[in-house]
Design a protein that fits this description.
Elements (H helix, E strand, L loop, with lengths): L2 E8 L9 E9 L7 H13 L4 E6 L7 E3 L2 E4 L2 H17 L2 E6 L1 E3 L6 E3 L3 E3 L5 E4 L14 H10 L17 H4 L1 H5 L1
Parallel strand pairs: 2-3, 3-6
Antiparallel strand pairs: 1-2, 4-5, 6-9, 7-8, 9-10
Amino acid sequence: MSQDSYMVIEAGEAGSGGMAIATVNMHSVYDKEANRAKYITFIAMAAARGADLLVMPTAYPKSGPLTMNGTVRAEEYSGYTYDIFEKCRAMENQVWFVSADHVGVDPKGCFDFYGHSRIIHPSGVPVIELGKEEGMAIAHGLDIKGEVLKARTKWFFGLNLLADRSPELYREIADTETMTS
């Protein structure tokens, strides 16, 4: 089940008339891969509605290596997809992406989680990333709105990918009946 919520973070105390430094979207999805179309659509909608920073807590389990003809191509395939999906969502929507994943084995012993919580720049490049251990990722002094603007006017050939979208060309993807069949 997916859920969205929005908040605006202001400089200074609430009600002090401080300048907005970010519009944040909190999104949770129980499976980035099985519900990829919904996941991509919700993130694109959040960016289109003005989110500068997307926050996604997750519980992404490990799956083991990907091998082809006896050669290991990815040591941890599920982690490989996690890494790509998150960097792509930040870059294609030109927004900050903050991911907080579980680490270690869950109490019932069913899943061993990937970890690698991170803060990703709107260009798709991680600013800070944790590994497989529990910890806290902190990036101090970031110009959230300023870097979003740079991503949409300077990085990636100066293309504003959000402005270049043509949603009328992919309405079928957003159709809930299509997404569940």
